[in-house]
Amino acid sequence: MPEGSLRDWIALSFATGVGSRTAALLIDRFGAPTAVLNAPDAALERAGVKSESIRSIKNTELIAKADKELAALEKLGGRVLTLAGEDYPTLLRETYDPPIVLYALGDLTGALSQAAIAVVGSRRCSTYGRNAAEMLARDLAERGVTVVSGLARGIDSAAHRGALDGKGLTVAVTGTGLDSVYPRENLKLAEKIAAQGALVTEFPLGTPPLSQNFPFRNRVISGISLGVLVVEGAERSGSLITARMAYEQGREVFAVPGNITSAKSFGPNYLIKDGAKLVHTWRDVVEELPGEIKAAILSGERSEQANRTRTEQLALDEVALSDSEQKVLALLKPDEAVHIDQLLVKSRLQSGELMGALLQLEMLERVRQLPGKSFVRRL
């Protein structure tokens, strides 16, 4: 498949009624996006293109729109990856309906030069789910696995933060344009991801968070990954859609078991029952990766700092904790948020001393503050 003009790739992607699969087939048939745009109506009809879509393909405004997109993207610092380009994600290209155009901010090629695992789950996650996603993402990132997710609230955000905390790489696949971060509260997180990985989308600049776009995003999340890890998700959740797409794309599916009385645990528990790999630690994921990748990770081919285990680091931190910090830490659990007023009563510390201890524990990444001035212990 020839590379062709970036402008023409974008223009063809803008044509209404021409999905990714149809666009790719037309490019194969005519040789390049430029040839598709310039093809006679009769030739397009013979290729099975409907009359309304032909009119859209022939609309000269597509070219002007594509030129504006390129100029705006360059100003933003982003880039275009086409289905025929060498830098297009190899795994995604091999799927049934890969986008013919991707827009990226950051180093997507570098982030996907190593094994990638998607971590997805509920937006309204539990404390347990958030901590599990963050812990697993951090542990995988520390071992050279790129963490892929969708920048949504809840599990997605926890996965990205875990990867960043692990000093690893992370990729956020969005259902919006690169200039329309959603939710807005994740704007700073998105900036960190672009600096330590990449943001990627198939949607042009200015695309708002439309609900119909997110299933398309989900197929890209699974498509660029070797496997998908579901942490939490209700019976009708996007994470189950992503898992189904992963199965269809021949990817591994993993799941973190959850509380059987919680609706949020239906998704992962159902997947485990259906044959997904049950995950307790990062090793459960790595064990299912291709041989060479698994061997490299398990043999510890990374720097000494990256190879230091979380347990060893926590032990070192424990020695450095003050009496008040140890007292506060002992009152916190990873699966139960405690309000600051309760901590004040139970710790019997002065308000200033408690705040100082909590601040130090946050800096040491031992506790996390939740909305409403509540705190949990980090795993």
Return the average pLDDT rounded to an integer. 91
- The name of the CATH architecture of the largest domain is 3-Layer(aba) Sandwich
**CATH fold call of the largest domain:** Rossmann fold
Shape: elongated
Molecular structure report:
With 379 residues, the protein is of the alpha/beta class. It folds into three domains: 6-106, no CATH class; 108-307, Rossmann fold (3-Layer(aba) Sandwich), CATH 3.40.50.450; 310-377, Winged helix-like DNA-binding domain superfamily/Winged helix DNA-binding domain (Arc Repressor Mutant, subunit A, Orthogonal Bundle), CATH 1.10.10.10. The chain has helices spanning 6-14, 20-30, 33-38, 41-46, 51-57, 61-76, 90-93, 108-111, 127-142, 155-165, 187-195, 214-223, 238-248, 266-273, 282-286, 291-298, 304-307, 310-320, 323-330, 340-347, 351-363; strands at 79-82, 101-106, 116-120, 146-149, 170-173, 197-201, 227-230, 252-255, 277-278, 338-339, 367-370, 374-377. The strands form two sheets. Strands 1-2-6-5-4-3-7-8-9 form a nine-stranded mixed β-sheet, sandwiched between helices. Strands 10-12-11 form a three-stranded antiparallel β-sheet. Strand 5, helix 11 (187-195) and strand 6 (197-201) form a beta-alpha-beta unit. Helix 12 crosses helix 13 (238-248). Residues 301-307 have low confidence and may be disordered.
